[in-house]
Amino acid sequence: MQDHLAVDANEPTLEQVIVETTVRKPRHLRFARHVSNILGPPAISLPFVLLVALYRASNQLSALLYGLITLFFLSIGPLAYIAIGVRTGKLSDMDVSKRSERAGPFLFGISSVVLGWLVLAILQGPRNLQTILIITAVSGVIMMLTTLWWKISIHASSLGGAATMLTVLYGAVMLPLFLLLILVSWSRVVLRRHTIAQVIAGSLVSIALALLILKIRGV
C-alpha cells in the first residue's frame, strides 16, 4: 500500500499538467531556439574551418592539424571563457545577451584570434586559415565598437562571413548557405535577441568585410 501511494505521489497532478501546458513555449519559439543553437558561432566554426582547411590541401592530415589549431584560438578558447563567465555569474548566458557584458568576451576573443594568427604565421600554416583569423579579428573590433551603442547580431555576422568565404572558395555550390543566414537571422528576431536592423547589419558588415579582406589577400 505504501509503495502504491509513493508511485501516485510521483505522478503529476492535473493542476501541474495544466500549468506546464500553459507555460510551454509555442512551437515556433522552440524551433527558433534550436536554429539559434545549431547555427550559432561555436557550432558553425567546426565545419567552416574544416572545409577551409581541406580546400585544395595537398596533405590532408597536416591540413586537419592546422584546422584544429585554428579552431582552438577561434572558438574553443573564447567559448571556454564565456562558459567560465556564466558559471561564475559574471555573464548572464552563453549568448552574452546583455550588451553591457560583451566587452570582456570581445576583448578575449580578439586577443585569442590574433594570437592564433601569429601561431599559424610562425608555423607557416595555410594562408586561408590565417585569413579566417584576420577576418575574425577585424570583425571583432568592429562588433565590439558597435556594441558600445548598439547590439549588432554576432550570429548573423559569423554565418554571413563563413558563407561568403566558402562561396568564394568553392563557388556557387555554397550559395544555399545564405538561406541558412536568413534562417538564423529570423530565429534571433523571433527570440527577441535582436531587431531586424541588427541582424541585417551584422550580415552585411561581415559579408562586405570578408569580401574586402579576401580580395586584399588574393584569395
Helices, by number, come to 10
Tell me the number of structural domains.
Answer: 1
Number of strands: 0
From the spread of the alpha carbons, the general shape counts as: globular
What is the N-to-C order of secondary-structure elements (H for helix, E for strand)? HHHHHHHHHH
**Please, what is the average pLDDT?**
88
Q: Give the low-pLDDT segments.
A: 1-12, 16-22
Helix/strand/pairing category:
mainly alpha
Span from first to last CA?
75 Å
CA-based gyration radius: 21 Å
> Mind describing the biggest β-sheet?
none
Keywords for this structure?
219 residues, mainly alpha, 10 helices, 76% helix, disordered N terminus
Task: Please characterize this protein's 3D structure.
The protein is mostly helical and 219 residues long. It has one domain (27-216). Helix content is 76%, strand content 0%. It contains 10 helices and no strands. The protein has helices spanning 2-10, 14-23, 27-38, 41-54, 60-87, 103-122, 127-147, 154-170, 177-190, 196-216. The protein is globular. It starts with a helix and ends with a helix. 34% of the residues are buried. Mean pLDDT is 88; it is low at 1-12 and 16-22.
Draw up the topology in text.
Blueprint: H1 2-10, H2 14-23, H3 27-38, H4 41-54, H5 60-87, H6 103-122, H7 127-147, H8 154-170, H9 177-190, H10 196-216
